[in-house]
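note to self — DONT lose this again. spent like an hour looking for the file last time. sequence + predicted structure for the chain T wanted, 147 res
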Amino acid sequence: MKVLLRKDLAGKGKAGEIINVNDGYGKNFVIKNGYGVLVTNEIEAQVKAKSESDTFRISEEKKQIAGIIKKLEDAEVTIIAKIGDNGKLFGSITGGDIEKALVEKGFEIEKRNIVLPEPIKAIGIYKVKVKFSYGMAGEIKVNVVNQ
């Protein structure tokens, strides 16, 4: 028997999936307890159409992200900071500072997507990783200069 899961069912599948189960298990547990419904041709067609539209949407989102990553590789942001007599920065450059510089360049990237192992504390050019959905990532060049 084919059943469309309405809720996650441990060891069987996640909500929205169509699974095959024994008739007794399907009727007496899955359907009776509201974990799923019996699959008809109409339901199967709806699930297939939704899956195809999700696949298309994800493909389009990945293309957009790839375009942003390509633009990031070509871009460089400059952050002006004050340094002390010892050559170190007063304070440090954080993801928030890089986010502001990216917004000025026209990029809509949140600071939580900027990966800094530790704040930048010296003048120089740094490659900073920017992560996106679907495990995609890019790098941007950050140039920290003296005021």
